[in-house]
């Protein structure tokens, strides 16, 4: 069996003449990395009939092989160039969800040198230009908008139906050669969530894709030596699913099986699909992991079927709570020979900045910088901001229809806005650990700084497994208040949650940690109002804005005081 992680993983620290300390991985990043489309061409020649991607269908699933994907993408490229008049560098914006035709369009853009821009579905649900859709269109400047069949944008925004564009009229032979590409060419535009303002476009170059996938394979050789088989529901308008996961599959000659988003109505079908295809790696966010564990902890046969070829479960290291970690670790210890890995990234870094150098010991580990990249910790108001430099960093933002520089420091490091600490694992390996988001911090009226990320994590651990999430408020006020989202089990034990918070207050009595009053959320966060991300996590800043009256009422005596406080 191939090694999970590369041997010799070590964090190298360097102190520069100006006193700064920067860190890099001891694992090198190979030079002259191939282009991602060249990887598709290679696999189409070496394994033409292997399934590249499958999607749900009426009855049986539909699939496309490597050779079919190459041929159909080149045919679609010809249509884009011939019928639509596109030339290299032109942008194609798409509203198509993950699937075979969406993949063919993505690959056709690579073949023709077009820029692929994945638009988020919700702002465009009515298919008309509006103030909500304006930032996306203004920043991407698409020559063509492509929508799934029947989408209102086909009439409202003159979008082209993907169904028509993807009609397979080939005879099985590949058309003329692909457009010449360079690492600096833009391959895609993705958009940040916009939770703190208008969404920003982030151009992703072909070189960013190659360096990202080459670095991942260097740190985690198992993804190259055991081609990844993924069951994946993550949306393709985010870099996690629509850039990193699908290109991880293509880079390493694996297969992706597109799944429905996790939910009580879909989890049975997900478990069945996993049993059928035997994933080698499961890449997930906390929402999906919770639902999967709910299903598999009660089904020994299903758990064995899922894990029979599983090498790793991966999640973003900053986003898992203590109770979910306990359950996940227990599942790992009871089933199969897989490990838990994590990482950390951003849209501005083609998805990935750090990865685990070894299986996780505990949640919150961000790992080591990708090979070929450097990370620095810079003091920002008493905390250490994680900053990164390397080939993964995007060339600019797209804001207001213009190119705008990323927030770079004076040394050319991208400022992530996230805090991190350097800590030793029990096995002696030094790793970066997540320490909250700087933008979520605020000050009380006393001037005391509240570190929202660590406070929220501590409260969730204190209340586990009774609370799914907690939103904390108090900026420019005298005290902290909180809104608790009880879990299914917590809804029957509300009084105990109050006692848990009182216990937290007793152990953490400073003004920056004590919760003076709290209440229980009457309804889940609303995705339609931007309160819930596509990864199933509450967007704290948006929720606070949308429910300002609720938190103001808590400040003046609404809700309840923690029991015993």
TrEMBL record:
InterPro entries: AMP-binding_CS (IPR020845), AMP-dep_synth/lig_dom (IPR000873), ANL_N_sf (IPR042099)
Pfam short name (any one): AMP-binding
AMP-dependent synthetase/ligase domain sequence ranges: 42-398
Family recorded in the similarity comment: Belongs to the ATP-dependent AMP-binding enzyme family.
PANTHER family linked: ACYL-COA SYNTHETASE, ACYL-COA SYNTHETASE FAMILY MEMBER 3
Record's protein name: AMP-binding protein
Origin species: Aminobacter carboxidus
């Amino acid at each position: 069996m191939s090694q999970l992680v590369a041997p010799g993983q070590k964090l190298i620290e360097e102190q520069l003449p100006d006193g700064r300390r920067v860190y890099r991985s001891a694992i090198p990043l190979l030079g002259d990395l191939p282009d991602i489309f060249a990887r598709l061409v290679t696999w189409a020649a070496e394994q033409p009939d292997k399934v590249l991607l499958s999607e749900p269908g009426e009855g049986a699933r539909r699939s496309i092989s490597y050779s079919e994907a190459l041929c159909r993408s080149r045919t679609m490229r010809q249509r884009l160039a011939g019928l639509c008049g596109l030339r290299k560098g032109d942008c194609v914006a798409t509203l198509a969800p993950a699937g075979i035709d969406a993949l063919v369009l993505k690959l056709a853009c690579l073949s023709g040198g077009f820029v692929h821009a994945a638009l988020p579905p919700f702002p465009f649900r009515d298919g008309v230009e509006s103030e909500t859709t304006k930032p996306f269109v203004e920043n991407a400047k698409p020559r063509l908008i492509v929508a799934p069949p029947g989408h209102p944008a086909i009439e409202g925004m003159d979008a082209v139906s993907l169904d028509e564009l993807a009609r397979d009229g080939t005879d099985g032979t590949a058309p003329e050669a692909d457009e010449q590409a360079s690492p600096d060419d833009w391959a895609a535009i993705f958009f940040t969530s916009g939770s703190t303002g208008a969404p920003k476009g982030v151009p992703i170059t072909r070189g960013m894709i190659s360096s990202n996938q080459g670095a991942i394979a260097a740190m985690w050789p198992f993804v190259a030596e055991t081609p990844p088989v993924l069951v994946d529901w993550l949306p393709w308008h985010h870099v996690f699913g629509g850039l990193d996961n699908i290109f991880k599959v293509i880079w390493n000659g694996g297969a992706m099986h597109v799944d429905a988003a996790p939910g009580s109505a879909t989890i049975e079908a997900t478990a069945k699909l996993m049993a059928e295809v035997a994933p080698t790696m499961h890449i997930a966010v906390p929402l999906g992991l919770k639902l999967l564990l709910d299903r598999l902890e009660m089904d020994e046969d299903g758990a064995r079927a899922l894990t029979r070829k599983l090498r790793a479960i991966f999640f973003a290291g900053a986003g898992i709570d203590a109770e979910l970690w306990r359950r996940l670790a227990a599942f790992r210890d009871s089933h199969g020979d897989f490990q838990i890995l994590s990482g950390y990234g951003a849209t501005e870094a083609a998805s990935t900045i750090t990865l685990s150098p070894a299986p996780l010991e505990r949640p919150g580990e961000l790992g080591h910088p990708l090979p070929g990249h450097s990370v620095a910790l810079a003091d920002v108001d008493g905390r250490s901001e994680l900053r990164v430099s390397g080939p993964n960093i995007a060339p600019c933002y797209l804001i207001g229809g213009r190119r705008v520089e990323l927030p770079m420091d004076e040394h050319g490091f991208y400022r992530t806005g996230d805090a991190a600490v350097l800590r030793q694992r029990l096995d002696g390996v030094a790793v970066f650990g997540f320490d909250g988001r700087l933008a979520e911090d605020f000050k009380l009226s006393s001037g005391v700084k509240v570190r929202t990320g660590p406070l929220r994590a501590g409260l969730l651990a204190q209340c586990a497994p009774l609370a799914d999430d907690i939103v904390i408020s108090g900026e420019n006020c005298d005290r902290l208040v909180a809104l608790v989202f009880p879990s299914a089990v917590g809804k029957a034990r509300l009084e105990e949650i109050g006692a848990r918070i009182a216990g937290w207050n007793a152990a953490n009595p400073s003004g920056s940690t004590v919760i003076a009053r709290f209440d229980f959320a009457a309804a889940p966060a609303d995705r339609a109002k931007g309160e819930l991300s596509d990864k199933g996590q509450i967007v704290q800043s948006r929720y606070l804005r949308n429910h300002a009256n609720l938190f103001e009422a808590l400040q003046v005596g609404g809700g309840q005081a923690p029991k015993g406080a």
